[in-house]
Each structure stands twice: as C-alpha cells, then as structure tokens.
Amino acid sequence: MTSIMTEANQGLLDRIPQQPVPEDLAEDYATTGYPFTRDAKMKMRNVNVFYGEKQAIYNVSMDISKKEVLAMIGPSGCGKSTFLRSLNRMNDTVEGCRVEGDFSLDSDNIYDPKMDVIELRARVGMVFQKPNPFPKSIYDNVAYGPKLLGVYNHRSELDELITVSLQRAGLWDEVKDRLHQPGTGLSGGQQQRLCIARCIAVSPEVILMDEPCSALDPIATARIEELIGELAENYTIAIVTHSMQQAARVSNRTAYFHLGKLIEINDTNKVFTAPEHELTEAYITGRFG
Amino acid sequence: MQATNLLILILVMAAIAYLIGRGRALSVAQPLGGIRHLHSLPYYYGMRAAIWCFIPSISLLILWVTLDENVITALLLADIPAEIKPATESDQNLLFNQLENIISGAISVERVTPAIAAAAERLEGLRQTGYWLMLAVICSAGALGGIWGWLKISPRLRARQQVEKVFVAFLIICASVAILTTVGIVFSVIFESVRFFNKVPVADFAFGLEWSPQTAIRSDQVGSSGAFGAVPLFVGTMMVSAIAMLVAVPVGLMSAIYLTEYAKPRVRALAKPMLEILAGIPTVVYGFFAALTVAPYLRDLGANIGLQVSSESALAAGLVMGVMIIPFVSSLADDVITAVPRAMYDGSLALGATQSETIIRVVFPAALPGIVGGVLLAVSRAVGETMIVVMAAGLAAKLTANPLDSLTTVTVQIVTLLVGDQEFDSPKTLAAFALGLMLFLVTLCLNVIALRVVKKYREQYD
Ligand SMILES: Nc1ncnc2c1ncn2[C@@H]1O[C@H](COP(=O)(O)OP(=O)(O)OP(=O)(O)O)[C@@H](O)[C@H]1O
Ligand SMILES: [Mg+2]
Predict the structure, then answer these.
(1) What confidence tens digit (pLDDT) does each residue in A259-268 have?
(2) Which fold has domain B227-461?
(3) Which domains occur in chain A, in start order?
(4) Assembly ipTM
(5) pTM higher than 0.80, yes or no?
(6) What is the dihedral of CA A57, A61, A66, A71, to 10 degrees?
C-alpha cells in the first residue's frame, strides 16, 4: 500500500513487454515505452473512439496501475479528454460517439451491456476542467453522491463522511464554518477542491481528472497538486494536463498522445529527461503543441 | 396625394444630392492622389449631402401636412360671406362637406347658392396656391441644403462621423416612437379611468361584489341601476387562469424536459415544430373549439356522472386556454433548461446519478428561477387572454368558486362593455378603461417580477 508510488518513482514497477500492434497500423504507429503493468487497476486494449465518421482515438492499449498517478499530455485536440471520458463511459452521453475495444476495471468489463453504468461512475469518479459545483450548499454538494447511493444509515454517518471527504480534499478548515452556504460562492480553487471532495465522498477507486487546474491560479494549482500527491496513497489517478511541469511534479508515469494515437508511455522521469520517441521529444521541448 | 408627390420629389432631390456630393468628393480627391487622402469614403460625402437635402425639406413637408388644413380653414372662414358663415362646429363640418362635394363634382354647382359656389372655388384656389407655395419652399430648402452639403465637401471633412450621428438620431427617433406610443396608451387609459372613478368610487369598484354595468340610458328605463364591483370579474379571471396554468405548467414543463433531455434528435426535429404549430393557432380557433367541442363534451360527461356542468364553464375555457399556453411554457422552459451548463449535468452523471436523478436534483433546481419566470409570463398571458373566454366562459358575472359553473372575466367584460352602440362618457363605457387599467397593472407586475427573476437567474451563469 505505502510503497507503490515510491517504487514507481524509482522506476521499479513490474512491467510486461508491449503487445504486438496489428500489422496495418504497425508501420506508421506503435506505442513506445511501457504501456502495461503487472498490477493493473484498469486495462484498456485496442481502443478506438469515433465521433460519427471521424475517428478520435486509434488503437490505444495501455494499463493504469493500482495507486499510480498517470499523466496524459499531448497537443490540443489529440484525444486526451476523449480517452479519459471513455474510461467511465461519460462518452455514452455524447451524441454520435462510438467506443470500441476492451476496457476492464479490476476484473469487470466496463463496456459489458450488463455493466451498471451508474455504479461504474461511482467507482470511477471524474473531476472536470472547469469547477462545476452544483448550485447547492457546500454540504449538499458533497452529500449529493452519498445521498443518491444511500451509503449511510444515520445522519451522523453522513456528517462524518462529509467531514472526512472535505478534510481529504484539504478544504475542511476553510469551509467548516460555512457548510450551508452555496458552493458557488467559493473561489475557483476552493470550488475545484469541493468537486474533488464531492468525488471522494462516493469512495471511488479511480479518479479521472481532466485539466483540473487549467482554470486556477498558481497558488490554487499548487494546492491541488499537493492534494493529488496525498490522494495517490488511496486512489488510482489519471490526470490530463497541459502543463508539463505539472505532469512532471505529480505523476509516476506519463502518456503522450498525438493525433489520437498513444505515442509513448513511460516513467515520468524518463519521458521528460530522455524521451524515446521523436514526437514526444518535439512536444516536450516545445517545438509544437 | 399631393404630399406623396412631394415626398417623391424630395427623395429624387436627395438622390441627386448624393450623386453630386459623391462626385465632388471624388473630384476633390483626384488632385490629391486618390480617395485615401479623403477623411471618409466618397459615399459618406454623398450621404452627407443627401442628408442635408433630405432633412430640412422632409421636416417642412411634415409641418405642412399637419398645418395645411387648419390654415386653409382659417383663411376661408376669415372672409366668408355672413349669410353662410357657420355658427357651430357641426355647421362648419356640414359646410365643408358640401364644399368638398362640389369640388369633387358630386354636387353640381348649379344646385347651390352662388355664395357657396364661390366659397368652394376659393377653397380650391387656396389649396392650389398652398400646394405651389409648398412646392417652391420644399424645392428651395432641399436645393439649399444640398448645395450647402456640397460646398462643405473638403478632404478634412469628417463626413463619416457626421453620418454616424444622423444614423444614431434616426434610431433614437424610431425607439422613441415605440416608447411614446406605450406611454400614450397608458396615459389615455389612466385619464379615462380617472373619469370613471369620478362617477364610481374606487372602493366600490375594487371591493364591490356585484357587477351589472347596465345603467339607464333613457330616464324612463327601470331596473338598470348599474353596479360596478369588479371582484367577480377578477375572481373569474383568476379561476380561468389557474385552471389554464394547471394544464399548461405540468404538461409544458414535462414536454420540455422530455424534448431537451431524452428525445432522440429525430423525435425532437418532429415534435418541436408541432408544438410551435400549436402556438400558431389563432386564439379565435381555440375559442370555438372550446365553445363547440370541449364545453358540450364536459357538460355531457358531467351529466353522465351526475354533475351539474353548465354549458359555458370556467373549466372548458381554462382547459383550452391551458392547451394554448403549453407551447409558450415549454419553449421558455426549454430555453432555461438548455441554459443550465452541460458541466453541471456531467458533474452529476460522473457521481453515479441517473439521468432522471440528475434532472430532478440538479437541472431542475438550477433552472427553477428561470422556470418560475417563464410561468409568471405565462400567467400574464392567461390573464390577458380574451377570445377563448369570450366564447367559452360566459357573460354572467357570478361570484362563484365552482369551476363547473359559468363565470366571466375582466377581458370578457371589457369586450361586452364596448361592443354595440355606447354613449362615450357613460360610466358603462368608462368602466372598460378602469378594468383595462387594473388588468394592465396586474400583468405589468407579473412581467416585472418575471423579468427580474429570469435576469437574476441569467447572471448566475454568465
Ligand atoms: N462531441 C464531439 N463531437 C465531435 N468531435 C469531437 C467531440 N469532442 C471532441 N471531438 C474531436 O475529437 C478530437 C479529440 O478531442 P478531445 O477533446 O479529446 O481533445 P483533447 O486532447 O482533450 O484536447 P484539449 O487539450 O484541447 O482539451 C478533436 O479532434 C475534437 O475535435
Ligand atoms: Mg480536453
């Protein structure tokens, strides 16, 4: 429990070699690095995502390891959000979006028709780019998920759950005296932490974050980055970011997407110091993106 | 007719002024080395010349059209022979009618006295003179204006800014026409209401429980004392509106939710235009639908289950009015629901909420102020609606709380008060203004509240 993150930081994650890519794609595209891990929380195989006729993700295969922080980087429009949203089936709500491939969470098939999407989304939570607190009180924002799922017996249990969630999100001290004031009245950074607390309150196993800091100032960003480090002790986290410094600071592994393809996925250290693929190198040295 | 000729003349002059103004701008620019040395594009100089030509002459034309008849009448009456000089205003109208007929040839000159024939001739003469005079004045005003505009053209002239100012002034005039009309209507309603309240005390009107506006027209008439208690009318209006809202709000809201959140694009593409067709049906059609189809149906249905339903009932009118308002509610609700940010919706789904949970717990509360605003607007429509209730609710002013009974509304009474021959300053006619004023105040309040609510709600997300 304690050591996986540190091990990953030292590049000690157990890895299996990359699976062969289908031949027709192999010429112009192959994932470099270490997409698969032994201790996988989520496994994605041969993922293709389409918006109508247009393909947004091309044959991506990778794992997300237990309790790691995986960063996804890449130029705008390369499909990071699309890929992330397919992990908890948020793409189901997008008209014309079609997802192909095998996804599993532990041993459950995510796209199994028998899979309960509602339950899946409680297990794989999501934090969005723009803080989106509901127009309700801070308390009710955090209580929203638990109330829907009915995971408590008494009011006091719910209160306890909310306190713990807010504490874990690092927001408790700032809001403990104003729990019943509207969540929309908080600052942007506080709102984002409120959204994280709201997500934690349903005890997800995986937290997906889509550019969680892009609407925040550097101080609020630092606060959230710190929080991600703390959350990684208990949760598996996948974070999309445009800031390479952020990816370098918070993640164990980094995946580089380019035009819908997963170009390289490797130890964060390695990606930023010695990228294997020329596209990755071009991106991190700022030649495009 | 003559004014139309002059208007065309003015437009032609303005067009000429435009052309020569633009031409001069171009020729001024030429020695300097092209139009980029002008302050504004050449057509602005043309427009400026045209404006200088148009505005003075059109103002004179308007002035003439408004004053013309008065001046001519005064001139004619000033030196009219004593034997035909009209004593009263109606005599004067009569005389002028006669003169008019002579001029147009409807009455032959032989059949009238020489004095009148002479007066007719003089009237026509005055008009001719007036016309030629005006033609001269307008032409010279237009020409002077045009020449002034033309002379001032120089490379440094800021024609563009000046044209812009005129354009803004024109917009302001248009806007004030709309505003002034509203203000005018409001004031005329207020003045007439004040006249009414001079005859009938305000308290009697506002709190009286009996409405029977038949006042005695002849002094020997009996049984028509006139009672102007408006309470039964307002109760009637409230009842019909309430029934209408009971139909329109749930149905409109639910259909909006279905269409925005659940319907497939193809269903939506079909259903939305259908709803809009519902909004396009003239209310008179709803009215006879209510009177001829719904009301008898309700009466028969009531008879079958042992209820006394009158053949003109508040229920029939209210139900049909509700149907009429459905599209109104649903399109407003549609707007506010789609205005709820997508992020809110995603946030809820990502926490494992179902679609209906999301709608009930997040979308609906977020959209609620907007929906309330929309419903208030719908109420003010229901309150002001006339045709359906005229046809289906009845005329008898009964103070009743039974929706199966016939009753009458404010709008119905305004219609009945003013239909037929009326003495214009009898309390009966003036009562219509008082009712109109009350109705106006009610809908005004509703609209103001609704707009504030909707606005506040907008601010929340912008
Ligand atoms: N709802 C949609 N309908 C159609 N095409 C879409 C839709 N959403 C995204 N796309 C397309 O899919 C591709 C990937 O988009 P995506 O939003 O995943 O990019 P991204 O990497 O998250 O970009 P950014 O860094 O700007 O957020 C883009 O070409 C985009 O135009
Ligand atoms: Mg994105």
Answers:
(1) 899 999 999 9
(2) MetI-like fold (1.10.3720)
(3) 7-132+205-284 (3.40.50.300)
(4) 0.82
(5) no
(6) -40
